[in-house]
């Protein structure tokens, strides 16, 4: 049986200001999805509430809209997957080998306190699966505790969108919190590349994370490599 991947996307459509739209950074999903698809892995998409996952408008403009995301936008069957995502209650964690948290600023609002996502993440981790995230997706791991009450990220190496990248992107003042600082507060060993906006992946055993949108493909490839060691396919 081939590995099964559970992608996590957001349901949030705007910042605190309704006039400031946000959503899933599409390429962070598509790059990974295509890597896993090429390997024949089974994949499903879940969100905190289920249903529609809005798209981040900025990610749909040149030069950020790359071939992978453009192909997805032009495929009705692919886009339909983002109109009817599963709810956490629909998911049996025992069915999945990997949980992969996608990003986009939207996730900062609905990932951290989703008890359903925390349950799935905890169960996948504790049965030996891979927990992964790219860019802002690591916000989904901020508050996840294991069965013994410890935070999953405590004492573990991890990366995700840095505060310096928020500042350079011109959106720092709109953020509900500093994700990098919050990770450090939880005892995570946060790392980032010397230069902003370059691909960077950090693997600490079964915890695999990518720093920014440009890290999605490399993150997925690292996941495939890790799966190859524990799940022959």
What can you see in these coordinates?
With 233 residues, this protein is of the alpha/beta class. The chain has one domain: Rossmann fold (3-Layer(aba) Sandwich). It is 30% helix and 13% strand. The protein contains eight helices and eight strands, in the order βαβααβααββααβββα. Strands 2-1-3-4-8-7 form a six-stranded mixed β-sheet, sandwiched between helices. Helix 1 packs parallel to helix 8 (216-230). The longest helix is centred in the C-terminal third of the chain and has 15 residues, at 216-230.
Q: Give the strand order of the largest sheet, numbering strands 1, 2, ... along the chain.
A: 2-1-3-4-8-7
Q: Tell me about the biggest sheet? A: 6 strands, mixed
Q: Name the overall outline.
A: globular
The CATH homology group name: Class I glutamine amidotransferase (GATase) domain
Q: What is the oligomeric state here?
A: single chain
Query: In angstroms, what is the radius of gyration?
Result: 16 Å
Content of β-strand: 5-15%
How helical, in percent, are the residues? 25-40%
Helix tally equals 8
Q: Please tell me the overall pLDDT.
A: 96
Key phrases:
six-stranded mixed β-sheet; 233 residues; Rossmann fold; globular; 8 helices; two-stranded parallel ribbon; 13% strand
Summarize the structure.
With 233 residues, the protein is of the alpha/beta class.
Would you spell out the secondary-structure blueprint of this structure?
Elements (H helix, E strand, L loop, with lengths): L3 E5 L17 H13 L3 E5 L20 H7 L2 H6 L16 E4 L5 H4 L4 H12 L3 E5 L22 E2 L4 H6 L10 H7 L3 E2 L10 E4 L2 E4 L5 H15 L3
Parallel strand pairs: 1-2, 1-3, 3-4, 4-8, 5-6
Antiparallel strand pairs: 7-8
Helix pairs in contact: 1-8
């Amino acid at each position: 049986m081939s590995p099964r991947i559970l992608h996590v996307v957001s349901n949030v459509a705007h910042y605190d200001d309704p006039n400031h739209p946000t959503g899933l950074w599409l390429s962070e999903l598509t790059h990974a999805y295509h890597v896993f698809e090429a390997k024949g892995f089974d994949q499903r998409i879940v969100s905190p509430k289920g249903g529609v996952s809005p798209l981040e408008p900025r990610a749909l403009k040149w030069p950020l809209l790359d071939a992978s995301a453009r192909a997805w936008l032009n495929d009705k069957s692919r886009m339909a997957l983002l109109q009817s995502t599963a709810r956490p209650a629909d998911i049996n964690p025992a069915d999945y080998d990997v949980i992969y948290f996608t990003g986009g600023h939207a996730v900062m609002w609905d990932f951290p306190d989703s008890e359903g996502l925390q349950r799935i993440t905890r169960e996948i981790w504790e049965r030996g699966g891979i927990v992964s995230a790219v860019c802002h997706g690591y916000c989904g791991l901020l508050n996840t505790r294991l069965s013994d009450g410890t935070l999953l990220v405590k004492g573990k190496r991890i990366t995700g969108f840095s505060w310096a990248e928020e500042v350079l992107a011109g959106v720092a003042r709109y953020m509900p919190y500093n994700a990098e600082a919050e990770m450090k507060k939880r005892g995570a060993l946060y790392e980032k590349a010397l230069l902003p906006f370059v691909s960077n992946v950090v693997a600490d055993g079964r915890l695999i994370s990518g720093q920014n949108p440009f890290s999605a493909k490399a993150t997925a490839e690292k996941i495939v490599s890790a799966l190859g060691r524990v799940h022959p396919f």
